[in-house]
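Case study B.
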Amino acid sequence: MANTWHANSYSNIASGIPFGSAKSMFTVFNSSSSSRYIRVYRIWIFNNNITTAVAGVLTQIQIKLSNSCSGGTAITPIPHNLGNSALNANTTVTHGATCGFPTDNLIRQFIWSNDEVALSTQDVPIDIDSCECLIPVAQVWDLGYGDTSVKPLTFRPSYDEGICVYHPGTSTVGVIDAETEFTDAAS
Amino acid sequence: MADTWRYYAPTVSWTANKNLLDIWNGASSSKTISVYRMFVFNLATTVTGVLDFAYIYRFTDSSAPATTGSAITGYAHRSNNTALNANTLGGTGYTANITKTAANMLRRFLFASNEAVAGTLNYSGLETLVPFAMVWDSGYSDASTQPLTCVAGAATGYVVVAGAGHSAGTTDLEIEFTSA
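Model:
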């Protein structure tokens, strides 16, 4: 099996990734200098704001393919096996980067509430804000279903390729936590 | 297929920063332990619970988790599994030798420790349902990806931890893993 990695934003930014207008929230990118194949299997985003009341709205989240990525704050992926060889330095996970997108880059979009989770939620009928904190619901991209005839999203060596969790809206309140599971391999 | 095991910790109390259930494979173990799935069920009845985070960490302490907690005996998925290596250990409530760092935090998730209520679908109630209780899942049959692994000859463990705000309620926890 291929070297597998898990990267999460909260090990880097405990307060969560803040929403911004037209913002690249969370990105996995394999630059053309990388010699490795990166395969993204799963992405989770959580509405983990229980501390700050905000005027949240129903906005959108998009999952987009990217062809450039610069800036932002690096997140260090955690190997599933401590015996894994080091991740290629040209494979990066970031939040708040500046991404470029090729034509036909949008592969999924969905409605997202960035309102806080009310502390009373555990007692009252569930709402969309708290649903977004449940792990099966937070898993917004999944190619880890065991069918080897289906390719995960694959970013090849020698090409600038990646995936971005993107907020196309204008709301600037609320936060998300984000995670991804991916592999790196020589072929 | 590999010998498969389950650490099951029933009726564990939520307290602040508690190491709720851990698995540790010492450097003296000759076996590689692969953690596939972890479950956290809400078991509370009539309690003033709180809504706060829980966490999954890796730790690499060289000594076994210890002090004040309790050992957990693994259930074999098949009764004739070879016995677990003596250096593969499970425990609940241990306070020593589980060093947690931000760089080794694999996941954080919200957990409500209030009781479920009949006739109401709330957050606490959802946590009693098996799909929502599965807080880590590498068991999706894709041989291309590694489960969380404790390699033979290197001390490695994984632990489910209560957040600092937790103070009430009870939970059942499970870790499903293989030894090979």
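Chain A touches chain B at residues 1-4, 6, 8, 10-12, 14, 39, 41, 46, 48, 50, 76, 78, 80-84, 117, 119, 121-126, 130, 133-136, 144-146, 148, 177, 179, 181, 183 (CB under 8 Å). The remaining cases will be described in the next quarterly update.
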